[in-house]
Amino acid sequence: MSRLALRRQIGRLLVAGFHGQQIPVEIRSLAREFGLGGVILFARNIGEPEQLADLCFEAARCPPELPAWVSVDQEGGRVARLKAPFTEWPPMATLGRSGDVALAERFARALAAELQAVGITLDYAPVLDVHTNPKNPVIGDRALAENAADVASLGSAIVRGLQGEGVAACGKHFPGHGDTATDSHLELPLVEHTPERLRDVELVPFKAAIESGVAAIMTAHVLAPALDETRPATLSRPVLTGLLRDELGFEGVILSDDLEMKAIANHYSVPEAAVLAIEAGCDGLLMCSGDYDAQARALEAVIHAVEQERVPYARVEDALARHLRAKERFLASPAAARPPRAKALRQALGTHEHRTIAEEMARFA
Which domain holds residue 182? Predict the structure, then answer.
């Protein structure tokens, strides 16, 4: 394979953050030079619904070969990038308190309808962490419940609801971030459980989501010494390939959490982390800060690792094939149409039906 052809493929492993409410020239350049797997949206990218729909339309078509994922963290509660006139959803802990699987699926279908209206195709939800540690500074009411079986049933309902309406779901954070006492945005959390405990609690919701056909699973930047004594889960072949792929049988897309978070960046350079993540079994790399030079350096490092045969090209082929299958499933549909007109778009957001569901959930706050 020529170096040019390899460059055009490696970029499809990147899901990139960027600045501004239009696709910047740097992202277009990245897509031309390397290809691009997707973009991730934050509040900094989002204005009025009409602007967002145009942005999503352009982002999906940025790479010339395959459409890009247009992704977002839209969980509900404090992790919600889309504000009014979108429906503003309560935190997911309300669903756990309700114990209502049907309500969870109704919520997810309503959420997906609003995401689809603006052209968002991948949602980093549901959170599948079991909230067993009340001192956890980052999960808290983002978790569905404190009981693994409840998280499994409600999380699976959210997967079915999102994907039933054509939006890819991404369960997170594997192999479990619920029983940690530190924030992986700031430092590397430690998960000190035996393999038996992990299988009995933390992994239960992920098993259920896999059985429900979840399209993607996001890694956790946590160190679980019982699984890998030296590397965090995002960079661990025993965790991602040995446990998630081989033992749990997950066939979808494995996405890293943001490689620029301090849990990783305090210990590894971003280019080295990118190589280790692909080597471990990640199919996609999230780089969210909008540092275009860092994104390009990470892709160059992966290219070099493949050329030096540190990362087998078969590993890249496998990752690309998983993205392709997921994109054929979720992107080969009417999203090819132009964004809806302003009136139709506004009518799809914050509907009476959706607000009623949010009110039902809020009763359990």
Answer: 3-362
In this structure, of 62-66, 91-95, 110-114, 262-266, the range with the lowest mean pLDDT score is: 62-66
The CATH number given to whatever domain includes residue 262 is 3.20.20.300
**Residue 141 annotated among the catalytic residues of the structure:** no
Determine which one of 150, 228, 257, 291 is catalytic: 257
Mean pLDDT score, 72-88:
97
- From the candidates 19, 183, 185, 304, give the one annotated as an active-site residue: 185
Q: Is the pTM of this model over 0.90?
A: yes
Over range 225-251, report the average pLDDT. 98
The 3-state DSSP composition of the chain as helix, strand, coil percent (nearest 5) reads 50, 10, 40
Backbone angles phi, psi at 254, to 5 degrees: -95, 120
Asked if residues 39 and 22 have their Cβ atoms less than 8 Å apart, the reply is: no
Which of 130-134, 135-139, 306-310, 357-361 bottoms out in mean pLDDT, i.e. has the lowest? 135-139
Residue 121 CA to residue 163 CA, distance in Å, equals: 10
Number of domains in the chain: 1
What average pLDDT does range 38-46 have in this prediction?
Answer: 98
185 included as an active-site residue? yes
